[in-house]
Write a structure and sequence with these properties.
This protein is an alpha/beta fold. It is built from twelve helices and ten strands.
Length: about 325
């Protein structure tokens, strides 16, 4: 039976998995390429169709992802599954072309301070760079997605004015991205703020082009997802097990967990095409490879239940 709340939700949404890139780049442990490939295969087996697998950023900046070329050569392509990677500049794009990447992701920040600290460019310089990379990537036959960081707040400047977000989106609106992922980089967003951001940005670009990327640093990620759903957003970014902490809040949860997101969506009758049990298997593998418990709540609940069942059988 549908409720007045779920009546407004999309019938199906895309879960965009970012764990192998956004998750692993924030981990202290660097995984072997073969282990990354195992994790990606487990995600595919669970039914995920859109997976950001790595980054073509200079290995000097992100040594955890230095094996991007090797990884893309190793993981088998499957019909209906789209692999993407972060491509910061034309040099990275050349590597991505050689690796036969299907989708390029470009990125920039809304705030000047974060842009300078993160990529040593002003926002103006970053807009020019992503425009150049996006046009070259499209000319090479790649789809192009754009990440916009610090949309809700900045670790250096505090709350980000919505007017500043809209100004940057306007400058990007004719570049030709098929999707713009709005990021709550430090996990400070609240539902009313999310509603205002989605409302204002959708005056500039079609709502169908908007994706939302929440961090759960302060426990509000799923509440923000609910707001996005109620406003017709159909793509949400997440990371297996909540892999990858928040770099600006040591010890805090970072990315929204794919299992938590999938459990909530399926419980509300929103289709994802994901097998939740196999997703737990992927989360358990990620936890084993990283060597620590991951923060995903559904993952820990499911693994705890399995441990109790095993204890009863051996008692």
């Amino acid at each position: 039976m549908m409720s007045p709340l779920t009546d407004t939700f999309p019938k199906r949404v895309d879960v965009y998995e970012v764990g192998p890139r956004d998750g692993l780049q924030n981990e202290m442990r660097t995984l072997a390429t073969e282990d990354k490939a195992r994790l990606i295969q487990a995600l595919i087996d669970a039914g995920l169709k859109r997976i950001e697998v790595t980054s073509f950023v200079s290995p000097r900046w992100i040594p955890q992802l230095a094996d991007a070329d090797k990884l893309l050569a190793m993981i088998p392509r499957r019909e209906g599954v789209m692999f993407s990677a972060l491509v910061p500049n034309l040099k990275g794009l050349e590597r991505a072309r050689e690796a036969k990447l299907q989708e390029a992701a470009v990125f920039l920040s809304v705030t000047e301070s974060h842009s300078k600290k993160n990529i040593n460019k002003s926002v103006d310089e970053a807009v020019r760079t992503v425009t150049e990379v996006a046009r070259e990537a499209k000319a090479s036959g790649m789809r192009v997605r754009c990440y916009l960081s610090t949309v809700w707040g900045c670790p250096y400047e505090g709350l980000t004015p919505v007017s500043k977000v809209v100004e940057v989106v306007k400058r990007l609106s004719d570049v030709g991205f098929y999707q713009l992922s709005l990021g709550d980089t430090i996990g400070v967003g609240t539902p009313t703020q999310t509603a205002e951001i989605v409302s204002e940005v959708s005056k500039v670009i079609p709502r169908e082009q908007i994706a939302l990327h929440f961090h759960d640093t302060r426990g509000t990620a799923l509440a923000n997802v609910l707001v996005g759903l109620s406003m017709g957003i159909k793509t949400f970014d997440s990371s297996i097990g909540g892999l990858g902490g928040c770099p600006y809040a040591p010890g805090a949860a970072g990315n929204l967990s794919t299992e938590d997101l999938t459990y909530m969506l399926q419980g509300m009758g929103v289709e994802t095409g994901i097998d939740l049990n196999k997703l737990v298997d992927a989360g358990a593998l990620g936890q084993e490879l990283i060597g620590r418990k991951l923060p995903g709540k559904y993952l820990q609940a499911a693994l705890g239940a399995l441990e109790k069942q095993s204890a009863r059988r051996t008692a």
